[in-house]
Amino acid sequence: MSAQALPKGFLAESLNRIQPSPTMAVTQKARDLKAAGVDVIGLGAGEPDFDTPDNIKEAAIAAIRRGETKYTAIEGIPELRKAIAAKFKRENHLDYRPEQTMVSSGGKMVVYNALMSTLNPGDEVICVAPYWVSYPDIVLLGGGKPVIVTARMEDGFRLTPEVLDAAITPKTKWIVLNQPCNPSGACYTREQLKALTDVLMKHPQVWILADDMYEHLVFGGFKFHTVAEVEPRLYERTLTMNGVSKAYAMTGWRIGYCGGPEALIKAMAKLQSQSASNASSIAQWASVEALNGPQDFIPKFQKIFEERRDLVVSMLNQAKGIECPKPEGAFYVYPTIRKLIGRTAPSGKKIETDEDFVTELLEAEGVAVVQGTAFGLSPFFRISYATSNDALEEACHRIQRFCGNLA
Ligand SMILES: Cc1ncc(COP(=O)(O)O)c(C=O)c1O
Predict the structure, then answer these.
(1) What is the CB < 6 Å shell around ligand 1?
(2) What pLDDT, in 10s, does the model give residues 343-388?
(3) How many alpha carbons fall within 13 Å on the CB side of residue 43?
(4) What letters, b where the CB count within 10 A reaches 16 and e where it falls short, cover 242-280?
(5) What ligand 1 atom has the least distance to the C-alpha of 181?
(6) Could you report the per-residue pLDDT of 121-141, keeping only the tens digit for each?
(7) At what angle do helices 107-116 and 262-273 cross, to 10 degrees?
């Protein structure tokens, strides 16, 4: 049966302003091909391949058994808000009272709540390319204007103070600063971050959305710092966000959280009270254990990811025409294919964009990666190395073969 067309004008105009998540689309395409029997290695998904640690699962099971299965406060259960405040103090040296914290259904919803509850038509939000795919679309959904600035590969994919300063206007409401960055893996030293916060100190109208989702995934002794820690005078206009998805291998539990000025938290809670209400009560109890319980698997995850990063960077740099910088963190690499533009794939198709490259790579070798256009910086592609070493090695061999076969 064919899908029934909706009446003209039925869908919201705002929906025309946004795209479905391209990373989720690649993941789904890889899944579909696999289901159809094609030998596909999916390197599109941004989630750890590890299972959620047992102590966290047990905490959820215990919560169910205790009957913690009802609505909770909109902002989250007091136990989790206390654990979040303690986490911010312990790991980021930030003083947030529990009332200054809030829990949402995933980190994405924290970003959504923050932007949707503050944006008015014409408000500008600075997004740093390459960016996490959702920022510009959420800004557009909220009626704001994404202002894209580029963090160049030559600068380690880090925003420079000059570029930041030039992008700020009287209409700038937010800058979204994500580090370690999805998709580039770039992270800032204290000094590099301070150079940016010095610029932000000159512009009191600009608020900072510090997306620290990958905070725990930094390698080789790199030290993570967050914005309000480096410049305490920005505390009053910073929303520090984080979540359990990446650090605790809990992507499916859907818990994200933030700390910020109480008045902003109240506005975000008002919005959430008319959408999701509260995040899952069971997942909130699991997150209490994630934040308060043993943290010893974090360095174990870190070590495994670091080895994989080194493997992937080294093998990709051996692929003809690919240049792959070594990132400080997250579980992504963001190589450029600038030397491959104009070459011809085995199918006879000329590679003119990074989209052509990823399509041909999937067709020819069954390796699913995401095109740089999705992240606002071309010609690049993103590999998520949150998968087994065997799969990564095989995928990199295939990429090497694909590049070697380009005419
Ligand atoms: C930079 C960044 N921020 C936020 C999120 C949202 O995470 P969650 O799965 O908790 O919604 C992601 C997930 O991919 C991300 O990469």
Answers:
(1) 46, 106-108, 132, 178, 182, 211, 213, 243, 245, 251, 256
(2) 999 889 999 999 999 999 998 999 999 999 999 999 999 999 999 9
(3) 34
(4) bbbbbbbbbbebbbbbbbbbeebbebbbebbeeebebbb
(5) 1
(6) 999 999 999 999 999 999 999
(7) 100
